[in-house]
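We examine the record.

___
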Amino acid sequence: MRAYNFCAGPAALPTAVLEKAQQEMLDWQGKGLSIMEMSHRSNDYVAVAEKAEADLRKLMNIPENYKVLFLQGGASLQFSAIPLNLLGKNNKADYIHTGIWSEKALKEAKRYGDVNVVDAATLIDGKHAITEQSTWNLSDHAAYVHYADNETIGGLQFADVPEVNAPLVCDFSSSILSAPLDVSKFGLIYAGAQKNIGPAGLTIVIIRDDLLDQAKPEIPSILKYGDQAKNGSMVNTPATYAWYLSGLVFEWLLEQGGVDAIYKINQDKAKLLYSYIDASDFYNNPIAIANRSMMNVPFTLADEALEKTFLKEAEQKHLLNLAGHRSVGGMRASIYNAVPLEGVQALVNFMDDFAKRHG
């Protein structure tokens, strides 16, 4: 049997997707070769790439005046690519700081322009939270405002999309496709694939057309969104297999009923796990209810000395990758789209049994 994988990334993929990829590994659609061995400029592969984009557009209801790019380098490369692409005409940007990933993004941006940092992380009754937007000191004429929707490591998520006057840029790496999203509210959305889209090695960038001419002149062509858009994300050889697998995930999501349907399942999973933690004296979640992540659930044990025992016993029950990030410790269950409800139920059952035996 396959284990339940709660890894934060690279993360679980739908079993049906892996099975289809397995079936097509040596012979893709009767062509006698793997899609990994196929030219990215062949008619067959271009059709695969175009269908993946079309399915993503359908899933997210992406307006026609947005380009969808399938790029390499992970979301971390976009920490540099975004200021290089958007600060060419106005060298000022606002960055909302809520955790480790938003901090990494703003540190890179400071290399290329004037960055106004808005510290929006706070504590409410001892719980981590995000401050009200009315308290933010935003610039009057920023080229864009950047934030990370969901801090994967801390399990801290925005309750709503911020309302700002400048183009809104957001890192959706760990929350894309988990819930309905109005793309038209954003100037640019980006997301590493290895959490809710596909395998590591691919990054999605969704950018509004009017922002394609804002680049700094010295930007490398491979990082320039305008060049990538003109060349179908193929300025150089793209991450072909990751792109193909992501397309299979998009097909799978559509078969589940799309983002609205998976959102309801995600809500049920999160409610199940958080409700159990809240009712327990043995476990604790450090995030204020309004800003709890639907995808990444950190929790601690009443006795820190039991953590290694917890992880060892969990693995014996085929519940994998529950250790928290090395920077914060504790536990973390990442319950992305591919993690089924029964996987979360199995985790809750184990947590309850463990607490009864060690509490």
Q: What stands out?
A: The mean pLDDT is 97. The first helix runs from residue 15 to 23.
